[in-house]
Structures are given as structure tokens and as C-alpha cells.
Amino acid sequence: MKKLLFPLILLITTGCLNSSVEEYDDTADLAFYEEFSQRDDVEQTNSGLLYRIIEPGEGDSPDENLFSFVRYEGSSVDGEVAFSTNEELDIFLPEEMTTFRGLAEGIQLMSAGAEYEFVLPSNLATGDGRVFSFNMELDSFLIEPDEFLSQNAQNQDITETNSGLQYRIITEGQGEAPQEDDAVSVNYTGSYTNGFVFDESQDGPVQFSVSSVIPGFREGLQLMAPGSVYEIFIPSDIGYGTNPPQGILPGAVLVFEIELVEIVEP
């Protein structure tokens, strides 16, 4: 998986799903919507969203306040506006989608692995008369952080500290653990609880001061001896909180696999 959050890619015009386009004759759009609604495999919600199930998926569906990881291709009926993730993952938070509300509604009908075709009337899309059609795949979504941490703590190989940090020992090294004023050399991979990688060391170990990293990462390092490999689970309040740097989801549990290569001598 990629380590960065990929933005929406507009194929024909510039903009994003929240962009507006000029009014135009919607006769063909309304005809398309009506024709699609008459198909035997199409369902209609109370809002007017049309959908058909291509692949059903498995498990629960995301609530509007849960980050959903999706792939999609879509366009207006006239073909003037089109969107695609180009097989990469985009991240939606349904409750914050101010336009294309039909997609926010549609995501909540899906479960992980599902692929649906959606047809959005104008009032659930850009509001300018255009009807849109989307094929969307729900790759996964993040469950509530407290729910994840509660479930994770039940695993026999998980230890939880007083701060709420959880960790799993993969390989135990030897020697003394670093202190806060030490510098260390580490390999690491950072992901969310669904496995989506948002950051990782590349081309060999990276060096930094223990004191320079977020509290949960700092605490985890100080549990490890050189040569150790740990998987740590960092709650938001000892991570980046609700106002993280760009590319990190607010309030998310962060999962890091860390190899402490060595404590760097000054």
C-alpha cells in the first residue's frame, strides 16, 4: 500500500468532488436516471440514490463518522466531468462530505470488499442539474478507536501500559533500552488499524532523537533493547491527537512496527 493520502484525480476538468460546474440542459440526465431506476437489479433509497450491487462484500458497514478507504471511477452523464482514483485508495469521512452526499450515503450501505454502482441525482451530487454515475469499491474502514483498542487488549500477546500504549514483542533484543535524551537508529512502518501504510523508513534505518517523536512512539522506544522488533499501538491522545500534520488522520490509532537497530553514540 502507499504511504500517502492520495487526493481525488479529476480526469477531464480540474477540481474535486466538492467543485461546482455550470448549469446545463438536464434532459438527458433525467432520462438516464429514469432508465437506470427501472432495471431489475437496482434499488432506490428514500433520498433518491440509485444503486446496484456488483460484489456484496462481507461484515459490517461503516458509520458516517468512520474513515472509509475507497476506489472509484465516476462521471457526469454528459461525460464533461469525471473522477478516478486510478486504482489507488482515497479516504472519505462521510459526515464531512458537503457535495456528492449520495456517495456519503452509499458508502454506509457497503461492507469491506463490496463494489457498487451508484447513480446520483443532481441534489445528491453537485446540485446543478447533472446526474452522476460511480462505480465504487469499499476496501476497508477504520473502526472506532476505543473499540479497536479494547478488542486488541484482549489478545494474549498484547501488553498495555499506564498511558494506554499497547505493544507486542516480535523479537526481543539485548542490552539497555534508550533514554529520552538518546539518539537511535530504527527501521519502522506506520499504518492505521486496517493496514493502510501512511509512513515508513526507506533505504535503510533512520536516525533521530527519542525526545523528538510523539509520546507513544517515544514510550515504545524506551521499552526496547537494541535488536528488538516491536509492534506498538498508539492511541490518539499519545499520538497526533485531533489536529495532526497533513497526511495523518485525526483521532486515529497509529500502528508502528519498529526495529531498534542501535542506540547512536554521541
Automatic annotation (TrEMBL):
Keywords: Isomerase, Rotamase. Signal peptide: none annotated. GO terms for molecular function: peptidyl-prolyl cis-trans isomerase activity. Belongs to the FKBP-type PPIase family. This is Peptidyl-prolyl cis-trans isomerase. Gene3D superfamilies: 3.10.50.40. It comes from the Bacteria. Its EC number is 5.2.1.8. It catalyses: [protein]-peptidylproline (omega=180) = [protein]-peptidylproline (omega=0). Residues 181-264 form the PPIase FKBP-type domain.
